[in-house]
Design goal:
binds fe (ii) ion; binds FE2/S2 (inorganic) cluster; 2 domains; 13 helices; eleven-stranded antiparallel β-sheet; 463 residues; alpha+beta; Naphthalene 1,2-dioxygenase Alpha Subunit, Chain A, domain 1; globular
């Protein structure tokens, strides 16, 4: 009998951790945006370890529905089985490693490899081997050569995630309060459905530069000046002097405008029907009557789920490492690493099932003009990100650190009687610093137990 050993095998060789810089001073060593060793460490210690966003349940509603995504650079098939269960399988044939499924999404009964025809069921089991008797002489342990499954798959309120690391905590615990608030911010008006199509394009930037920008409310007035001048962006709604930051363990964070406690009290006085009626008004009309200029007016149920502080945050959540919940909770953006200098940007769109035609049309129009390959804002951002990345490759330029020190030591973490923590301040760089601090902790920890033992708690006090 041949040796059919098929484990993923091998322990991680000890990495030289001196390459992971200390970023606690807010000075960012530019090598983290170009060093191939750092990048390799990120794939192993962040992406292969974290819970990664896969898709929304409405993208795989029926048995046989599948959707292709990535965990780092590992391609995976998200597929709903005959038993209704959603599985995540590595999209690589166990025979010679060929990519098995070539379509981005669809419905199928089996996955047949285009190289030699090995055939797999929806649950990943190997169900057919051409020439099993004639060529293999029946000497192949078919049960041992199914597709490799993710270690864990779970969803939070219909949003599916997967991890390749069996030692990862539960998804609920991984997300923590801040990550869960991020997802809740999409469910403000009840159930949502993902629209057809995911917009995808590659930007010549390091993935972290795209991620840290989502907390950056400093650049909007300058980078997106043209969008303001043509009336696409309302600068007043950016609220640079009224910002809230929430920092969650393992690197999750929310940063951006907020609803004040006084404004929230007015919203709380509205019935859900009154809230929905206001939400359905065109923007110009809405601005005249709503106590909060930024959508959405959150429902009583959402407030209960988000907590008294979370409900007032209308900024941008990032679920570590790379899932940005954007555009009034209707877009999700994945920043998928493609080498240190390239990032594939994906845009999913979800909308409340309750949206009427007018709301749906208005949201689609705004979304398609904002982000994605044709997005006005993404054109501006992409240009800055790619040039910042390019400069990190210059052997002399990279000796000069980037500066993320705005408001460092200037603010206080406030604790609500509910226990929820937040910083209420003006434009700042707290969330970016937190992201990099946690990023370094992920890279230094050799496994999940070490990461859980060494991760920073959500900060308190002066920050
Ligand atoms: S590589 Fe898939 S059948 Fe050979
Ligand atoms: Fe931007």
């Amino acid at each position: 009998m041949l040796d059919h050993s098929h484990g993923i095998g091998g322990t991680e060789i000890d990495e030289d951790l001196s390459i992971v810089p200390d970023l606690s001073s807010g000075l960012i060593d530019r090598s983290i945006y170009s060093d191939p060793d750092i990048y390799r460490l990120e794939l192993r210690r962040i992406f292969a370890r974290a819970w990664n966003f896969m898709c929304h349940e409405s993208q795989v509603p029926k048995a046989g529905d599948y959707f292709i995504n990535y965990i780092g650079e590992d391609q995976v098939i998200v597929v709903r089985g005959e038993d209704g269960q959603v599985r995540v399988l590595l999209n690589t044939c166990r025979h010679r490693g060929n990519a098995l499924c070539r379509a981005e999404l669809g419905n199928t009964k089996t996955f047949v490899c285009s190289y030699h025809g090995w055939t797999y069921g929806l649950d990943g089991k190997l169900i057919g081997i051409p020439g099993k008797t004639d060529f293999y002489r029946d000497d192949v342990d078919q049960a041992a050569w199914g597709l490799a499954p993710a270690a864990k798959v779970d969803h939070y309120k219909g949003f599916y995630f997967a991890t390749l690391d069996a030692a990862a905590p539960t998804l609920f615990d991984y997300l923590g309060e801040v990550g869960r608030i991020g997802i809740e911010s999409m469910l403000n008006q009840g159930d949502v459905v993902a629209l057809d199509g995911v917009q995808k394009n590659v930007i010549d930037c390091n993935w972290k530069i795209a991620v840290d920008n989502l907390f950056d409310w400093y650049h909007v007035k300058v980078s997106h000046n043209s969008a303001s001048r043509v009336g696409f962006l309302n600068q007043r709604m950016m609220m640079p002097m009224t910002q809230m930051v929430m920092l969650g363990e393992l690197g999750h964070a929310i940063g951006g405008p907020m609803v004040t406690e006084e404004q929230q009290a007015k919203i709380d006085a509205l019935s859900d029907e009154e809230r929905l009626a206001i939400d359905r008004l065109p923007d110009a009309e809405r601005a005249k009557v709503t106590p909060s200029e930024r959508r959405p007016l959150r429902s009583v149920a959402t407030k209960a789920a988000m907590g008294p502080v979370g409900v007032r945050s209308t900024g941008h959540p990032n679920i570590f490492p790379n899932l940005w919940i954007s555009t009034r909770g209707m877009q999700l953006s994945l920043r998928l690493p493609r080498g240190p200098g390239h990032t594939e940007i994906w845009w999913f769109t979800v909308m409340p099932k309750s949206f009427n035609d007018h709301q749906r049309r208005a949201a689609k129009k705004f979304i398609s003009h904002a982000f994605g390959p044709a997005g006005l804002l993404e054109q501006d951002d992409g240009e800055n990100w790619s040039q910042s990345t390019a400069a990190s490759r210059g052997v002399v330029s990279r000796r000069y650190p980037q500066n993320l020190q705005m408001a460092m030591g200037q603010d206080e973490v406030l604790v609500d009687p509910s226990g929820q923590k937040r910083i209420e301040t003006r434009v700042n760089e707290h969330a970016q610093r937190w992201t990099y601090k946690c990023w370094a902790e992920w890279l230094r920890a050799r496994d999940w137990p070490e990461l859980m033992a060494t991760r920073s708690p959500s900060p308190t006090g002066r920050i």
